[in-house]
Design a protein that fits this description.
Elements (H helix, E strand, L loop, with lengths): L1 E4 L6 H10 L4 E4 L10 E4 L5 H11 L1 H10 L3 E5 L1 H5 L1 E4 L5 E2 L4 E7 L14 E9 L12 E8 L1 E5 L4 E7 L1 E9 L2 E4 L7 H13 L1
Parallel strand pairs: 1-2, 1-3, 3-4, 4-13, 5-7
Antiparallel strand pairs: 5-6, 7-10, 8-9, 8-11, 11-12, 12-13
Amino acid sequence: MIGIVNYNMGNLGSVLNAFEKVGAKAKLVNNPQELKKYDKINLPGVGAYGDAMEHLNKSGMKEAILEYAKSGKYILGTCLGMQLLFDKSQEFGANEGLGLIEGEVVAFDRSKFDNPELKVPHMGWNEMFVQFDDNILNGLPKDFYLYFVHSYHVICDDKYALGKTLYGYEFVSAVKKENIYGFQPHPEKSHEIGLKILENFVSL
């Protein structure tokens, strides 16, 4: 059973439907005390980093997620959910994250773009280049297209960089640290490739 963490940050219905499409049983989790009952959890989300962390803190869900991570069970963060896995974000001031992976979330720096005509947010289909083999990518090629919508990206040690993408410059678009996974793009919006990633996550 997959627990989808509900912290009032958008697109939960489409995430739930995507897991059901790959044959998984999934349920929205509102109560932090119930989180430990699930075999794996997904931290999705669309919206502002600070608002998301405020809700996780006030609801008690932050501590529940941290305890879940210590159990060794798998966690998948997607889009905003991936960014929340890190230590901090610069979005609308300094915001503390979950601290499950060392690193921070920063805005795209347009002064470093190789093409000044590129717009932010980074929106649409773009290519992810796989950096190392992992079971969550079983059956997929070494590079493939996924659907992105974001204005911020993570900076972390390359040892965690499962995937990288080019938009103005190269940035980390997927991560793994032990039992923790993160994908900046939206698997639930990425057709067959995205569904394959979710299917592989369920099978871990």
